[in-house]
Design goal:
single chain; D-Maltodextrin-Binding Protein, domain 2; 14 strands; five-stranded mixed β-sheet; 33% helix; 2 domains; Fructose-1,6-Bisphosphatase, Chain A, domain 1; 274 residues; alpha+beta
Amino acid sequence: MEINKQSSIFEILALAGEAIVEIYKSNNFNAQFKSDNTPVTLADKASSKILNSELKKLFPDIPIIDEENDIPEFKERKKWTHYFLIDPLDGTKEFINKNGEFCINLALIEGTEPVKGWVYQPLEKRGWYCKKGNGVLEFDTQGEVQRIEKSRSTSNTIRIITSRSFFKPLEAQLIKEIEKLYPVEIIHRGSSLKQIDIILGNADMYLKAGPCSEWDTAPGQLMIKEFGGITLLQANFKPMVYNKTNMLNPHFVMLNSKLNNPDFIQFLKDIISK
């Protein structure tokens, strides 16, 4: 499938972003907790409604998986050749805490991997788009689109970016092991903006050993891979795949191109297997 309505996708994201910002500024979030103990607000629901409605108008034949809707059973999903994967408000805790670190995630999955991805930051009215094999673009609501150049950092310090709201003891333990051999800078950040920081050259590594789902990582993983990085499962160091029976992600690590080398990956294998 070839998406030839790219500007329309940008417009849909901007429209959903406007709905999110309007609720953000109103302070009337009506925050509740779902069965998995994660929060949901009026903004999550408003964004979800817009994204689903508008995408179905543009691409009526493409199924959609959305965090805020019922997930189709695997026996149905496994038959799909491609589908859209949506997180209508990634970083709901950051939204509630009003620190601005939230975004919209959208990916097109073919088979078990993302082939197109969008991350949109509503407050800044800008986003990032990637098509497999085509680099990464930054866009804004004024219609400006520019290609992002790959960062060429040569620093010896490893900048490890981790979740602001879900930083886990196992992550802290692994960081201590890394610090035994490398100088480390720790950055806490909300939502998929962690992955955007890697492609923008502001971080080298994203370490995750806590709760996370496929819609949290799909577009960012594609962008990192596009710039020579890699996403590996901590259990077996195989690449992370999508449309699994269980849509929760196992523990993983995302590395930029600088760290995506045999020596560093072997080092990670050694400390994780201890």
